[in-house]
Amino acid sequence: MLLWHTLHSDDDIGQFACSSRLEKALPYPDITVTGVGKLSLPLSREQGLALKAVAEQAPHGRGPETVVDTSVRDALQVSRAHMQSSTLPAVCSARHVCDQCI
Question: Which SS3 state, helix, strand or coil, does residue 63 take?
Fold first, then answer.
């Protein structure tokens, strides 16, 4: 409850911090998208536009339904079927890093 209050108040929010040392560095994401090519980070304007061209409107949940409503969520997503990566499973394990802080 204290965390919720802190995050939603106008008070000084310098009360929570986390620090941890990673056992090994996370690999640089090696992601290739069909129709775009290998992504370089940060994305160039050209790659951003190419990524947008292969993306689709991202849905969201409304009760038990999954809907597309841009007045609620105006975001794009790229289907996993269009992505290839040798490092994506390792990058996704970054959740483990967050779990150390909780």
Answer: coil
